[in-house]
Design brief:
By secondary structure, the protein is of the alpha+beta class. 38% of the residues lie in helices and 20% in strands.
Amino acid sequence: MEKQGNIKISSENMMPIIKKWLYSEKDIFLREIVANASDAITKLQKLVELGEAKNKEPYKITVTTDEKAKTLTVEDNGIGMTEEEVEAYITQIAFSGAADFVSKYEKAGGEGIIGHFGLGFYSAYMVSENIEIFTKSYKKDAKSVHWASDGNSTYTIGDCDKATRGTKIVMHVAADEKEFLKESAIRQLLNKYCAFMPYDIYLNPKGKDDEKPVNTTHPLYLKQPKDCTEEEYKNFYRETFADYNEPLFWIHLNMEYPFNLKGILYFPKVRKQVELERGQVKLYCNQVYIADNIKEVIPEFLMLLNGVIDCPEIPLNVSRSFLQNDRQVQKIAKHITKKVADKLIELYKKDKEKYESCWKDLATFVKFGCIKDDDFYQKVKDILIFKNLSREYVPIESCLGEEISEEDAKAGKEPKAVYYVSDENKQAQYIKMFKDAGLDALVCDTYIDPHFISYIEYKNPKRVRFMRIDADVAGALKEESGENKEIEELFKAVLEEKKVTVKTEKLKDATVPAVINVSEFMRRMFEMNSFYQMGESAADITLIVNTANPAVLALSAADEEARKTAIEHIYYLALMNYRQLTPEESGAFMADSAKLLEKYLQK
């Protein structure tokens, strides 16, 4: 006999119900329904282990789409429900079937129970205009039960003819949600949310013996690292992330104390150097997908990696504010960071050649991690490396100087100057001069390097000051004082309108007539202002005229027209080695070049 009743909402559980409406993606309903089916099987499995129930058939979940009937059905062969349980767990929204079950069967432990049946079930109304439940309990002589509701305040409940144990949820999909009736769409959602659920899931099975489930019930991350082969790790990476570039290496997380955490983090090859490319770290709870890249659990810089992390101690449905304030979650994030640092240190110590070969791909991730997480920096600071002008890797720690004392600082002594190159092509002339002078510099060629060297300075203010290779040419390369007031005045007179400061020095390389020098501080300020669009004024530049150069020394004896042309030519040559010429500058340079050629050929 069928009866009618009112759906009851427990007042103390109103907030979880409200949160149900805050799902950012309505397709998450399928995860909730399939997760409930998985819970139902887990409950039965535990009762079988306790000897309180029997089962001889394989556990499975079946998902069926029927575009003609406009229904989406999820069926399990789990514990099933009696009429009383349906009324308790379904009609009283947010009453936790899982909590009730665990409290009743404490000795069974409750591990693997995913969540709250009542709450998850009602998420299906986001896409359904009516839902039916057909269920039969495992209990002996239990009647089959049929429940139906359009999601408003009423429902009907009564007997039905379901012959087998388990629960079947039939969702009558709303007219404007018909996309959820397509097999391809449901397959995609199952791959997203249910790829690693612990029981076989079949989509529209045809009854064939060779029918394959859509999920993997024993994902690789659940195995012991010692039992996994290199090929298995690579296959899991390809299948999970659809990336056919082999990962550089990986970290297999496997711990049970002080919290349960399993997973694999992969270090992918960098596809773009010009930006910090976001990876994909998938977070699971008991093999059920929660979300990608939850920064409260996975430190932000680790999101540049690809990976899977499964932590049963993080609830399936939980607010971001809870994650931000939960100490256990913070411990999990710190542990993951520590394991990543340990892996990098291990690789550096055991296989330095491989570490260096991977550094181009690792550099952005590691540097970003240092900037974002001081604990990570403290762990890996000894394995931070840069190429030098000889194309050899050197640890940045070995480049820093001794810490200057307070007395030395007051006396005007500055920390050690470490020179760096930001563009090997544009700064080729400076590199040649440094090499010829027996000086070295670091090559900073990744997008994050300007921020990173500032961070290193911030962490070591009394040990280092970074100078771009064109920032202190006179200080680094002058052989002796080469001040020449006459030549200086000649250049100033010709370049008066160029807004350039002129200085004369005797440099070690006599082949170079002049170089551009830009204050490191002023250049950084200019670049920062340009980045934040805080003005377009050009960085102040200084022209260092090399009084060791024969052409410069010959200027005094040249006629006025030839001297003017030569000085402008020297200025543009120096400018070309610093930056690209403007169209006007390029035209002037070509004109000067033609004049000098003409004078030279007429001799």
